[in-house]
Design brief:
The protein is an alpha+beta fold. About 45% of the residues lie in helices and about 15% in strands. Strands 1, 2, 3, 4, 5, 6 and 7 form a 7-stranded mixed sheet that branches. Strand 1 and strand 2 form a beta hairpin.
Length: about 375
Amino acid sequence: MKNHSLYDKLQALEPKEKELDISERLRAMERPLLSWYGEHARALPWRDRPEPYRVWISEIMLQQTRVEAVKPYFEHFMEALPGIRDLAAVSEDRLLKLWEGLGYYSRAKNLKRTAELLVEQYGGELPASYEELKKLPGIGSYTAGAICSIAFGIPVPAVDGNVLRVVSRVTGSREDILKQQVKRRMEEDLRAVMPEGAASAYNQGLIEIGAIVCVPNGQPLCGQCPLASICVARKKGLTGEIPVKTPKKARRAEDKTVMLLWQNGRIAIRKREDTGLLASLYEFPNMEGHLEEAALLTRLGVKTAVITSLPAAKHVFSHVEWHMIGFRVELEERPAGDFLWVTVEDLKKNYSLPGAFKAYTKLIR
């Protein structure tokens, strides 16, 4: 049950005689926001010790990935690579194996490139500078703001999707939050009202409200929000219309035939190209289109094999989705091709297979 006395205490009251302008409304957020965050902040592993390296790694992992999914990855990553120099020295294959299942693998590659630059140019430390951080691979304005505020206490905003949604609703903005100029303007507006000495709690409080109260999907929990009394969208019944986002383009569909090629107790994998989708990751051999068994044998260049159909699967990327059918193919001899033939144990320990093939990876594990 809600504690009404605490809830009322946390509210910022809007004067009845006039409507607050944007700057006044943002300034009115500070007290209730900081009080609410002090009471409701979730216990997360990267919050226990907000050191620059830990903050950086957690923020990169959290990009387009749920908090609950990130927790075990973060802890395992910290055990394997506890510092920037460890990250700079790790092999790409080992790094991608640690990242396996998190998706958006370019994030991991940028981490390593940045770690190498930090060792070469910054003495193996993240710089306590917003502008310097933004020069590093994979670090944009949000991540730079998060590192500065959480790890160094520098009053710089960290505007992600959660913050864009919360602030748009509080101010009643109908501007398209997917436009960069809208995000930049919000960063400027928040920078002007950031509290000295509480930058970490302020930024994390806004993000936390967006994650668990002013939620991205479904109805916002306005009855639990410390900003409800100054929220224009709530007062005018516009939470279903705000924030405004440009509709996404329809994803392109691609048909694929995935093959689990077995020969003498080993399974075939191959490495993808160095650029493009899932660059440099390993995959099960696959071909464009949905092939029948005869066409599959012809493409492999073999005359006979024991072929078993596998369940169909679908994987959705941001701009494309794969519609896959699969076959288990038992071969007497290895076909020509740039394949690696590995044991199941070796595959599990040393090679990163992207989540796109999860439906088929599960069949061999």
